[in-house]
Amino acid sequence: MTYPLLSYHGGHSGDLCDHAHDTKAALLEAYLARGFTHVGITEHLPPPEDAFLYPSEIEKGHDAAYLQRVFDEFQFHTRPLLRQQYGDKFHLAFSFETEWYGKHPARWLEKNIEKYRPDYVIASVHHVNDIPTDMTLIEFANVVRMLGGVDEVFQAYYDRQFALFSTLAPYASQIPIVVGHFDVIKLFAPDHDPSEEVWRRMVRNLDFAIANEYVFEVNARAFKKGLGEPYPSEHLLTQICDMGGEITLGDDSHAASEVGLHFEDALPVVRSIFNEVVAFEWGDQGCGEGGRLEKVYLPL
């Protein structure tokens, strides 16, 4: 099966992410070896304080200040070097993946956008009530107990996602916004039948994102997690298509061996609904600082 070789959510690497492996250069070499034509490299924003460290980070003796220094080094030193080294080998862009936690998540995100000036943004939510919801079943169960049920957690997740989408809207005319794993909240409750309250929130979020020209990532990593369908689900992808939304692809790779992983599983679902996917290429002003990514459409 042939398909467009692009990914706009992936390239998480062990030099910045403790639950990833390999270097950024190794991941880029893997994309190159696989024949990818459009590549977006993503990394999680570092936590604003130690309270949001993951156990693996604590075990390694890291703190928020250390992770901030590592992220700064990548953004201000390594990113320009990688762009120079690989920018003529494929259409290359760099983003960061958002978080939504803490007392002032909107203000924190705005400061990071202004500081790092990403080529585009992956709009993702990984926490409810400041607890991770897609890392371990134990943590997800804690949030369920805290809020009183799975449906309540879903509602809270989509409310936080809407707040994130609203915060990003003023930037959408300047840089592309790609919605990361829209329904990742289903990971530990894949059989949950969302209530009308959840569905209303989901449609509200879809409508807002589409109105602001956000692009929805079809995330193939869900298959690695054992879900048997991508993020978003086939049902949601149909809804996105019916509402006039656009999609791109993401492998959400956390190692060189995961580049393009499970695209062969996700693409039949995508092709049954969409005829094309969005990729991004640099406009006439060139790439990086001062340039602007523009949408191009690749047939499926």
Quick structural overview:
This protein is an alpha/beta fold.
Kindly describe this structure:
This protein has 300 residues and is an alpha/beta fold. The chain has helices spanning 24-34, 55-59, 64-86, 105-116, 137-147, 150-168, 196-211, 221-224, 234-242, 263-271; strands spanning 6-7, 38-41, 91-97, 120-123, 127-128, 131-132, 177-179, 215-219, 246-250, 276-282, 293-299. The chain has one domain: Metal-dependent hydrolases (TIM Barrel, Alpha-Beta Barrel), CATH 3.20.20. The chain is 40% helix and 16% strand. The strands form three sheets. It has a seven-stranded parallel β-sheet with strand order 1-2-3-4-7-8-9. A two-stranded antiparallel sheet has the order 5-6. A two-stranded antiparallel ribbon has the order 10-11.
Helix-strand layout with pairing:
Blueprint: E1 6-7, H1 24-34, E2 38-41, H2 55-59, H3 64-86, E3 91-97, H4 105-116, E4 120-123, E5 127-128, E6 131-132, H5 137-147, H6 150-168, E7 177-179, H7 196-211, E8 215-219, H8 221-224, H9 234-242, E9 246-250, H10 263-271, E10 276-282, E11 293-299
Parallel strand pairs: 1-2, 2-3, 3-4, 4-7, 7-8, 8-9
Antiparallel strand pairs: 5-6, 10-11
Helix pairs in contact: 4-6, 6-7
